[in-house]
Amino acid sequence: MKNISILGSTGSIGKQTLDVIKSHKKEFKVLGLAAFNEVDKIIEQIKEFKPEKVCLFEEKAAQELEKKTDVEVVSGMKGLEEIALMEEVEQVVVSVVGAIGMQPTIKAIRKGKNIALANKETLVAAGEPIMKEAKKSGITLMPIDSEHSALFQCLNGEERSKVSKVIITCSGGPFRGKKIEDFYNATPEQALGHPTWSMGAKITIDSSTLMNKGLEVIEAKWLYDLSFEEIEIVIHPQSLIHSMIEFVDGSIMAQIGTHDMRTPIQYALSYPKRISNKFPRLNLIEAQKMTFEKPDYENFPCLSFAFEAGKIGGTLPAAMNAANEIAVLRFLDKKIKYGQIPEIIKKVMEEHKNRKADSIETVLEADKKAREETKKVIEKL
Ligand code: MG
């Protein structure tokens, strides 16, 4: 029995993690749950999974929850960290959205907790200090992202030195094949229409601008100690191959499956074991075809920004990520146009004063500054 806490339990990945746990009650037990402010949803989860401690990030929501449950309730960043650091917890699922995941993740690593990471922003912004701490603590950092889970599975038992490149697949999003002027004024509803995966709002917008793929490139760099020259992006609209590894002998290993996040989530929880489940299987005859295209860096500049930020390094990826988070939220609030998202990010990256990103404090400071800068850039639009 593995004791688990989940940061972000009411979001898309959090709910699917609980679904995995529900179908493997002998393997996993939930000790802590944390969410942003959804009182009713977390009450349902408390009833079903009986955690020992629960955090609602927003204090008002936490106070409301306290009146409705006997379970210990905590709040704020301190509360989020408390859930991550619970004594008996062995693995922390980090599925909160955005850079908010950085602090609790690093503290949990320092305490020797294994991590199942769905929050790619954490590695993008703070890859260097996180990987350093993970190595020092000897913990296992399991990716939940389908692409990185695919890479992990393909690399399993292989020698890192025999990898010639990694090929990360990308669906291309809802605007694939179009010119930027055709979707510059896209509405949130249009941008949220992802062709293959069903995910939360922020990541779905990121998938439409291809920033999601850019963040994944940086995430892969840190997880698998890659240079950016070793990472290739291939557009694969059917999203059946979740990513591939090419080895020095020319052999390519791929991981293939349905568009069901519960599979990589389950693997992240059960590793090094593989356990069975009753989730739908991929029928290759019905799927029929798999096609591949070159990525379009011109009409999807966010992908180039990520490669650029990743190669330059330092605090630039943190600044890019912060600018993207703010811009996407403003777009979802209908405060800016869709086509302004990359324009804003570009401006913030240009203005950024780059520093070494070797400590979590430096990264957090760069993140904060870039958020302020982004708000200024948006005001001037
Ligand atoms: Mg992904």
Provide tags for this entry.
Rossmann fold; 2 domains; 7-stranded parallel sheet; 4-stranded mixed sheet
Brief overview:
The protein is 48% helix and 15% strand.
pLDDT averaged residue by residue: 96
N/C terminus separation? 54 Å
Structural class computed from helices and strand pairing: alpha/beta
Biggest beta-sheet profile: 7 strands, parallel
The number of distinct helices, counting runs of at least 4 residues, comes to: 17
The order of strands across the largest sheet is 4-3-2-1-5-6-7
Shape: globular
Indicate the low-confidence ranges by residue numbers. Answer: none
Order of helices and strands: EHEHEHEHEHEHEHEHHHHEEEHHHHHH
Instruction: Compute the number of structural domains.
Output: 2
Bound molecules: magnesium ion
Radius of gyration: 20 Å
